[in-house]
Write a structure and sequence with these properties.
Strand content: under 5%
Helix content: 40-55%
Order of helices and strands: HH
Shape: flat
Amino acid sequence: MPKSTIEKNYVSKVDQFINDLNQQNPASESQQREIAKHQRIAQLRDQVTSDETQSTLWEDF
């Protein structure tokens, strides 16, 4: 029984259209703010700084 293969680099015509549209039209001011907000969230998520001084929950156990 032959294994079915899945084309993993397939891009639909709709995705191509949206990608072309995004490249032709620059992001609006509100979109730029939204992008900056989510970049900040991703940075805070990915570069966690641990604060050892606040860890008093388990000290008495």
